[in-house]
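Hi V.,

Quick status before I head out on leave. The structure for the redesign project is tokenized and pasted below; the design run finished overnight.
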């Protein structure tokens, strides 16, 4: 379905990983969802903390990881992921990477035969090929220079994982706020405006 601006309507899963409902990340989620809905996209929200998502991998689930029963404990989250044609992932960067609950979502939901599979030679084959766009929205305590010097390792590895499971050519964009602790109201509002603009140009 085409939207009034000529863009294609997408099914967008917005994943948020921040425990504080009054945080800038939560405000970013609200801004992103409102802008996407205004553009006519279909939106589902997945608030990992609010939903009480368990990022740990119990022994029983671990033993079923490579079996057809692997989705049973996370069937709802798997269905959301398979529904999506685009992802907006929002989280603060802690210790150079995503919060543990977000990493746990990757570990438990991006499963074998759901997110990807392997050939006999070990080549990874993506299965989430319906996903065409991914947007990262992140706040950092560190400065841009500090993250640039170390290569932004958390985002690098998560991006690599998502490309492997969708497409190496999937569109990936980022909206970031560095030195967020000292950002102040003006920079916080500018960050939200950049998010709104990015969603309007989705």
């Amino acid at each position: 379905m085409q939207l009034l601006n000529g863009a294609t309507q997408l099914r967008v899963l917005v994943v948020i990983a921040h425990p504080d409902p009054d945080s800038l990340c939560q405000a970013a989620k609200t801004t992103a969802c409102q802008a996407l809905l205004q553009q006519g996209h279909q939106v589902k929200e997945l608030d990992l903390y609010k939903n009480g998502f368990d990022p740990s991998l119990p022994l029983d689930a671990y033993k079923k990881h490579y079996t057809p029963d692997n989705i049973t404990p996370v069937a709802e989250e798997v269905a959301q992921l398979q529904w999506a044609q685009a992802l907006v992932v929002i989280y603060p960067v802690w210790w150079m990477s995503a919060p543990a609950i977000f990493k746990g979502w990757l570990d438990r939901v991006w499963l074998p035969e759901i997110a990807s599979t392997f050939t006999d030679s070990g080549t990874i084959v993506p299965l989430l090929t319906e996903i065409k766009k991914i947007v990262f929205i992140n706040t950092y305590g560190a400065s841009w220079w500090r993250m640039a010097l170390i290569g932004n390792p958390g985002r690098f590895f998560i991006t690599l994982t998502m490309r492997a499971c969708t497409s190496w050519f999937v569109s990936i964009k980022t909206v970031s706020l560095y030195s967020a602790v000292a950002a102040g109201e003006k920079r916080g509002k500018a960050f939200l405006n950049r998010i709104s603009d990015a969603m309007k140009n989705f």
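Above is the designed sequence. The CA atoms of residues 60 and 70 lie 10 Å apart.

G. will cover questions while I'm gone.

Best,
W.
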